[in-house]
C-alpha cells in the first residue's frame, strides 16, 4: 500500500511476487521509487537477522544491484524511521480542521495502532470524538490505555512475548513471578574483540585451543587467540591482533575462475563439471532469473567450521565459494562450484571431507586433501539451508522445499527422504550417536526422525512462531556424559527456548526471559548449562536441570551466534554492532 499526501499524484503501480513495482509520487518535488522502497525493506530484513528472506527478496527485486544500493549510505533503522515520519504526517493530517488549522495543538488523541489501521477520515472522526470529551473523561480514557500498556509490558517482562502462563516452567505455574535477581555481567568482566567493520554473523571456538574464529559482513573471517584466565578488560588488552582472512572477489569473469589467490592449491572441480558450470553461468535462463550476478554480490562470511583437531578452518561465503585455511591463516583451497550463496558448511568427524550446502539447491562434498569435488548432490527443488554429517560417509540436508534427504558418499540417490514439514526446514542436527535426526521449520514445529521410519518419532508443536535453530545436548548413552539424559533445545522467533526430553517426548523447560527472536543456543561441554543469544542484545546462561537462569550479559547489538569453548569456562557471542564478546563462566556461576 502506498500512503500519499493530499492532492498528490500517484503513478501506476502494483505488487508482483512481493516486490513493489512502480513509482509513488508524493509531490512534484519529492518522490520515492520502487527501487528505494525495496532497498529499505531489504536493509530492514538484514538488520533484523532475516538473512534467508533478505537474499530471496534481494534476488527477486534486484534491490542489491540498483544505483540506490551502490550510491546511498543508509543509517541503521532507516525503514522504521521512514515509517515513523509517515505516521507523524498522518497524525498531523487527522488533527487538522477543514480549513487546515489545528484546534488546540493537542496531538495525543491517536495511538500508533489507530494510525496504522484506520483511514484518514476515520482518524479525523476519532479525534473529533475525543476532543468532545470532558477533561475528566479524557483523563480516564488515557489512564485506561496506560493501564493496558503497563499490563502488556509486565506480562512480556515475566513470560516473554507471545508466551502464555501455561507454558512457563512448573515452578512458576502456581505462584506469582518473583523479581529476577540475576544481575547483568559487569562490563569489566567482558572481553570485547573489535576489528570487524560490519555485523559479525558467526563464531566458533577451536576444539583444541583457545582460538576463536568469527565471520562477518566485512568479507573477512578473523581468528583470535584469547588469553587463558578470566575475561575482562585486562584480558582484552592482552589479546593480540587477530589473523584476518580476507575473502577477495573473484578474478576475471564469473565463469569458474579460481577464488582468492593465484597460489590457492586446490582445483574447483573436474573438467566435466567445469564445462557444465560455464554453460549454466551463461545460460539465458540464469540471466532471466537474475542469478548471473550472484558472484558480484557481497562477500559476507555466512558460515564457518573447524576440523576435528583445529588445524583447518573452512569458511562459506555469500559469493558461493568455500575456502579452507590453515592454522597460520594461509588460504589452502578456494572451492568454487556452487552457483549461489553458501549457508551451511561442515567437516566430517575425521576431517577427510567437507560438506557445503547452497542456495543453488545442491550440497557438495569436497576432499580435504586436494580440494576437489568428491560428489555433488542435487536432490532438492529449493535452496539448501543446512547440512549435517551423521558419520564420515553419510549426512542429511534440509531445504526451503520443506524436505530432508539423508545421503551417502558414493550413492547416486538418497538413502532416505523425510517429509512432514509444511514450510522451509531451517536446521537439522544428528544426535551425538547419529541415531536421531532433529529438524526445525518455519511451520512452528520441531521434529525428531529415525532412518528406520518414514514418519517422525516426535512432532513438537509448542512454539508459537518459526523455529530458527536446534541443538542436541552432549549427553546420554554413548557420550562423555552418559549419566545425563539426552535433550534437544529449540530456539524460536517467539522469543523462547524449549528443552525437550526425547525419551518421553515432553517439553521439560520453557526458557522465557528473552524479548526478541532467539537465533542461537549452545550447550556447555558437560551438558549442564545452555547459553542462548537473542536480538534483544542479551546472552543468557541457563541451568539445564531446573531451567533457572544463572548468568546474563547485555551487549551493544543483536546476537547472531553463541558458542562455548572446549573447556566450558568461556562463552563467545557475536553481535550486530561488529563486535565479538567473550565472558567467563566460573564454578560459582553454576
Task: Describe this entry's structure for a reader.
With 590 residues, the protein is an alpha+beta fold. 19% of the residues lie in helices and 32% in strands. The chain contains 11 helices and 35 strands. The strands form 9 sheets. A 4-stranded antiparallel sheet has the order 4-35-34-33. The chain has a 4-stranded antiparallel sheet with strand order 5-6-7-8, with no helix packed on it. Strand 27 (497-501) and strand 28 form a beta hairpin. Helix 1 (34-47) packs antiparallel against helix 2 (51-61) and helix 4 crosses helix 6 (120-131). The radius of gyration is 26 Å and the shape is globular. The relative contact order is 0.08. Residues 1-29, 160-178 and 252-297 have low confidence and may be disordered.
Lateral arrangement of strands in the main beta sheet: 4-35-34-33
- Sum up the overall morphology in one term: globular
Give the end-to-end Cα distance, rounded to a whole number of Å. Answer: 52 Å
- Supply the number of helical segments: 11
Q: Would you count the extended β strands for me?
A: 35
Kindly name the structural category: alpha+beta
Q: Helical content, roughly?
A: 10-25%
Largest sheet: number of strands, sense, barrel closure? 4 strands, antiparallel
- Stretches where pLDDT is under 50 for at least 5 consecutive residues are 1-29, 160-178, 252-297
The overall average pLDDT, rounded, is 80
Rg for CA atoms: 26 Å
In terms of DSSP E residues, the strand content is: 25-35%
